Amino acid sequence: YHWGQIGQAENQGRAACLLAHVHALLGQGAQAKTYAESALAIFTADPGEDWDLAFVQAELALAAQVLGDAAAHAAHYAQAKALGEALAEEGDREVFFTEFARIPKPV
Questions:
Q1: Which residues have a Cβ under 8 Å from the Cβ of 77 and sit 6 or more positions away?
Q2: Distance from C-alpha of 102 to C-alpha of 97, rounded to nearest angstrom
Q3: Is 68 a residue whose pLDDT tops 80?
């Protein structure tokens, strides 16, 4: 609510990404997917940092895994990994891949 009232687009996108993660951890794949797709739409229209889209793709992968959608899980996982590898700052790559390691790998 807060970022929807006073935040910029990147704040709203990051909040949606965080909510996607929480819902995925709670096993609520459909809700996680909805929030992750919302974050993707925000960052597609108004790009934030280079790592924003990497995290969004990771959350889409996690949501797909929770939903049991193996094809979407693999596709988003691969996209997140590629975006993570392309991050400009080494520190950002380290943070991303530390978190990304928690996303189950596709089988």
A1: 57, 58, 61, 103, 105, 106
A2: 9
A3: yes
